[in-house]
Design brief:
The complex is a heterodimer of chains A (about 325) and B (about 220). With about 325 residues, chain A is mainly α. Chain A has helices at about 1-35, 40-65, 70-90, 95-115, 120-125, 125-140, 150-170, 185-205, 225-240, 245-275, 290-314. Chain A starts with a helix and ends with a helix. The relative contact order of chain A is 0.11. Chain B has 9 helices and 7 strands, in the order H-E-E-H-H-E-H-H-E-H-E-H-E-H-E-H. The model of chain B has no long low-confidence stretch (mean pLDDT about 85). Classes of the chains: A mainly alpha (about 325), B alpha/beta (about 220). At the A-B interface, helix 3 and helix 4 of A face loops of B.
């Protein structure tokens, strides 16, 4: 069984590598079409993005191949990087130093330990209940009331988004497949691929057709583009249904659900960025901005995907 | 005295230096923004705001190796010679120019040591506020050192260097650094103009540094 899972992971990785090779060639073709000595910023941005996708695909493939520990460590690091980006832009004062240190070095590792050991009762309440109550106490004891509610609320929001939501991706590992196999790790691959490919389709194809914008003041997403992206995700989901326990129609529906949640998630993130006056969360992923810029849709979709998987196929 | 031990110590110093840079990058993902200069090995004096003991290692971390090797931070002798570990890290890892901050007790003139280092071709990192800034103001008034350097060696570029976020990453009195993203912004070089007074120059230098504190954002 284990070897079949490994073979399937490799198959999927090589499938994605195939897509990336095609996109890399497309980028080089678009470059070559331009007169010598000229460059087109859209093409250059596309090429940089494809290079980043190569990196992300290789890292995710290696983590999934190395098994449960690799996946959990990878997502724990992703949470760390995302929380670092988020809290860089929130309100905080020296009185919050200890509670923020606890968020990074106690709450975050604990959450992933609970996920690793499948202690569902703990990992679903640690941040929404215990961090929610404890961290404001720690901040309040230092006595600085300047913007107190804003400070603790933004910190809690960061933890929910960057740690609680992201940890639902590796939590899929602990889903017991109906056939008793170890293939739940493939659900992560399924989830990541449908959300990212739906986004990709919406970004490059969707925005050219469709004119009515969903949220004109903050996002270029159009209604037709989002519908097209969700449809593309559903098709990818149906094609990948053989790695899921959902069946063809179920896989298409789950893919569409994950994709649409993700797209609204990225609109929420656009609103936060606009509010904070930042264009990108950081510069750590070339061409994509920060981890949060890359993962905004995954973050929103993960808990929904996790819960529906458990509710309907649990 | 180029014996075996000193070679070993030099290797150890390089290893410690790389480890410190790695830790700084892991915690703060520190990034250089070359807004006013190119990252080339030219002789410069980087003058920076000072809010935390981690300031100097941050600048040191973002300098590429070929610039780092010729750059020496100017630092307080009483701090770096306090114990054996610091005496290793300060002078040997960071290759600091150690100056005595106490005018009444010192035997050497700090400016002489600084000019000596400049004449050897080194670039320098200095904190012209003299002390860590614990106030809500962006900068403390600059000491005269920067002016004296610029006056004595007018060909050297004086580069304003703004370190963002460190007061939140490592506020005074805290032990554990907070992982937040830190950016080191290098501005356009300035020089002491002919007939420019000390106060006018120091104000211009401080303004050029503060100007870097607002990020180049398209909208806010």
């Amino acid at each position: 069984m284990a070897s079949q899972t490994t073979v399937d992971i490799l198959l999927l990785s090589f499938g994605v590598f195939g897509i990336l090779i095609a996109l890399t060639l497309l980028g080089e073709f678009l470059r070559a079409r331009l007169p010598i000595g000229q460059s087109n910023p859209v093409v250059e941005a596309f090429v940089v993005r494809v290079h980043s996708w190569w990196g992300l695909t290789i890292v995710l493939s290696l983590a999934v191949l190395s098994g449960q520990v690799g996946v959990i460590l990878l997502f724990a690091f992703v949470s760390f990087a995302a929380l670092r980006e988020f809290l860089t832009f929130t309100n905080k004062r020296q009185a919050d130093h200890l509670s923020l240190v606890l968020a990074f070095f106690a709450i975050l590792p604990l959450q992933y330990i609970f996920v690793a050991f499948d202690w569902t009762a703990l990992f679903t309440v640690l941040i929404p209940v215990y961090a929610f109550l404890l961290l404001p106490i720690v901040s309040a004891l230092r006595g600085d009331t300047n913007q107190f509610l804003v400070r603790v609320a933004e910190t809690q929001w960061g933890l929910m988004i960057c740690v609680y939501c992201i940890s639902h991706v590796p939590a899929l590992l602990t889903y017991d497949m109906p056939d008793g196999s170890d293939r739940s790790i493939l659900l992560i691959v399924f989830f990541a691929m449908v959300v990212q490919l739906g986004d990709l389709f919406e970004y490059y194809a969707g925005r050219t057709f469709g004119r009515r914008k969903i949220a004109p003041s903050l996002s270029p997403k159009t209604i037709a583009g989002v519908m097209g992206g969700v449809f593309a995700a559903a098709v990818v989901g149906a094609v990948l249904s053989w790695i899921t326990p959902f069946g063809v129609l179920g896989a298409a529906a789950m893919a569409a659900l994950a994709s649409i949640t993700g797209m609204f998630g990225s609109i929420v993130f656009a609103a936060i960025k606009r509010d904070k006056g930042v264009k990108d969360w950081s510069h750590l992923i070339p061409g994509q901005g920060g981890f949060l810029d890359q993962l905004d849709s995954v973050i929103f979709a993960a808990p929904v995907f996790y819960h529906v998987t458990h509710l309907v196929w649990g | 005295m180029a014996d075996k031990k000193s070679l070993l110590r030099r290797v150890a110093a390089r290893a410690v230096g790389h480890s410190l840079a790695f830790v700084a990058r892991f915690i703060t993902a520190v990034r250089a923004d070359w807004r006013g200069i190119e990252p080339v090995a030219k002789q410069r004096v980087y003058f920076a705001n000072h809010v935390s003991n981690a300031d100097m290692p941050m600048i040191w971390t973002v300098l590429p190796g070929y610039m780092r090797r010729q750059t020496r931070p100017v630092a307080a002798e009483d701090y770096w010679l306090q114990n054996k570990l610091r005496a290793f890290v300060g002078p040997e890892v960071f290759n600091c120019v150690l100056v005595d901050r106490r005018p009444e007790a010192r035997t050497e003139d700090p400016m002489e040591k600084i000019l000596e280092a400049l004449d050897e071709g080194s670039s320098l990192i200095i904190f012209p506020e003299g002390n860590r800034n614990m106030t809500d103001d962006p900068l403390l008034p600059f000491r005269a050192g920067l002016y004296n350097m610029g006056k004595a060696r007018p060909h050297v570029d004086l580069v304003p260097t703004w370190i963002a976020n460190l007061n939140e990453i490592m506020p005074k009195g805290e032990v554990v650094p907070l992982p937040l993203i830190c950016t080191v912004t290098f501005g356009s070089p300035i020089h002491v103009e002919e007939a420019e007074t000390k106060d006018a120059f120091l104000k211009r230098a401080a303004d050029s540094l503060i100007a870097l504190s607002s990020p180049e954002r398209s909208r806010d």
